[in-house]
What we know:
Oligomer: single chain
Number of helices: 0
Helix content: under 10%
Amino acid sequence: LRLGANNADVLTITQGGNVGIGTTSPGSTLTVIGAINASGVLKTSGDTGQGGSGSFASLGYDTNEGRANLL
C-alpha cells in the first residue's frame, strides 16, 4: 500500500507489515526518512539497547547522521 501527495510516495506499508514514512522500502517495523518532531517521552516495550526492556527513553535527533535515535 502506498499513499502519496504531489506525485510522491509519503507512506508505504509492505506486504510484510513494515511501515515506511518518506521511503518506499522500509527495512524494519517503522522506518522514517526525514525530520521527526516529537514531544514528551517515548515509551518502549522491548529492548532499546539503551536501558533495557520496558524502560523509558528519550528521542533525540542526530544532525550528523540525519536520523532519530533513542537516548
